[in-house]
Acyl-CoA dehydrogenase family protein (Tistrella arctica), 388 residues
Amino acid sequence: MRVTLNEDETQLVASVERLLDGEYGFDRHRRTAETGGGFDHGFWRVMADQGWMAACLPESAGGYGQSPNDALLILERCGAALVVEPLLSGFVVPAMALATANGGGHGGGEAGPVAIWLPRMLAGDAVAALAWTEPGRRYDPRPRQVTASRGPDGGWVLEGRKSAVLSAPLAAVLIVSAATDAGTALFAVPGDAAGMTLAGHEMIDGQRAADIVFDAVALADEALLARPGAGSDAVLAAALDWGAAGAAAEAVGSMAAAVALTVEYARTRSQFGRSLSGFQVIQHRLAALATEVEYARALLPLLADRLTAAPEVRRAAVSAARSAITAAARRVTADTVQLHGGIGVTNEAEVSHHFRRVAALDLGWGGAREHLARYRTAPSRYAALSSG
């Protein structure tokens, strides 16, 4: 396992930071989140033109990512910059579902969902969403509320509800999990499908989500992305592992930025005639926070390496790293808010938005407790963290 960046990765990071530093300041984050509907179509296209989408996918899926580390590096920088545009939930996770389905012999061939939607997503012409969360079924990927049955004239009919589907209000296509008599199936549902109703809402970090009702939504056979059974389960598991891993990378970027903001605040804020950074207790707290950030960041190369491992090893490694990073990010961002004092909880304070981003990532992709419990029951938990 390699823990340092190669030349290509270094150049990728530099190009991402250069764009974000020049075009995506805190003011733009607030403007997009509060008055721009949580999405800037122009910036989404810029991200695609810069190759960020393609760097998140391997060549076999139409991208040019050398390894999963490319995606995690980009997501980490997006977390640090508080990018509202949903690169993780609106591209990476649904794109991985499409790519995994295609690699597993699903996807519908030349007329199927992969051929139709993945090129549009890579070009920045379409946002997608993975609709898997259901009311009363917290973090359980097995669909129960949404069912799919054969229509009287062929095709499929969807009925039921999904809740808090990230990026759904922005999506041109939704990858929907549904229960069938033969097991879980995945469908590519156009965002304007007849019979589908979305109730959009804003998440705590400014990103958008929606509750969805499927009322006799009729789909053609070509909408079937992954056939009922183990194949769909594998596709969904891979996509959700990528979601948890990407959220961990974003959390590392956000917590690192929160610490940097707090260090600067301590240097400029005076108390009792001296800067806060001059007090030893503040120095110790800042040093402890920086240590937490470096520990969390050190887990990302392991995470990237295991994302291409066997499913059971990938699952255990994702949960191990995710639980550690999530717990650290919640502690660090809470402490940075506290060190800012009363201003740290205001909407005008950038550090408060990092606290919100980490909280949203926790809620959306499973927190430390959920992933620690999953790791403890994983048969391959020891192999997942082995360096061999």
Summary: The first strand starts at residue 128 and ends at 131.
